[in-house]
Design a protein that fits this description.
Layout (H helix, E strand, L loop, with lengths): L4 H21 L12 H18 L4 H22 L10 H7 L11 H6 L5 E3 L4 E3 L2 H4 L3 H6 L14 H22 L4
Antiparallel strand pairs: 1-2
Helix pairs in contact: 1-2, 3-8
Length: 185
């Protein structure tokens, strides 16, 4: 249920209705009224809740933090350790041409440098994704997805432990959002 101004007003109306019905069914109890002092507090709360509802629809801040603190370091680690899970070894002809079998995807370092650069990533209000990597490294999609003659070596891949770290970032962001925008300062 979204918590906008209308939701708070509806909750307030239900509260008044419930209090009124309670007073009618239990005539032995004194009538309860919401005083003039409480109304401004409820209106301030409804404004805070509306701000919170607007703010929770834009995930740019936690996505940006997740990109910088989790996603890019994880991709860099994929290159450093030869994939997670480990990539298939290079073909014998590739090893012969390069003179070495390791590191698997680091020959000139261009792909690793571009894939772990913030500049190729787009952060929107609800997602983070790669854009234009193929324009900067023409063979990137072939490496990532493989071809008929070459196995895929997914370097842009989020690990299970990354999801836990990203979840913590979102949880911390949400708690801070509630504290600052939800009126619980």
């Amino acid at each position: 249920m979204p918590w906008g101004l209308n939701s708070v007003q509806q909750a307030y109306a239900k509260l008044l209705q419930s209090v009124g019905m309670l007073a009618q069914t239990m005539s032995d109890f004194p009538k309860m009224e919401i005083g003039v002092e409480l109304y401004p507090q409820l209106m301030a709360l409804s404004v805070d809740m509306s701000e919170l509802a607007r703010a929770e629809q834009d995930f740019r801040l936690p996505l940006e933090k997740a990109l910088m603190e989790v996603i890019l370091p994880s991709i860099k680690e994929n290159f450093n350790v030869g994939g997670r899970p480990p990539w298939k070894p290079l073909a014998k002809t590739t090893v012969s041409n390069r003179g070495s079998a390791t590191p698997i995807l680091v020959d000139s370092g261009t792909l690793q440098s571009k894939a772990t650069s913030k500049s190729i990533w787009q952060v929107t209000k609800d997602d983070v994704h790669v854009q234009n990597l193929d324009e900067q490294v023409s063979y990137a999609s072939y490496i990532q997805g493989g071809t008929r003659n070459m196995v895929a070596r997914q370097f842009i891949m989020i690990q299970d432990q990354d999801f836990d770290a990203i979840e913590r970032i979102f949880s911390d962001w949400w708690e801070d959002l509630i504290r600052t925008k939800g009126g619980f300062k």
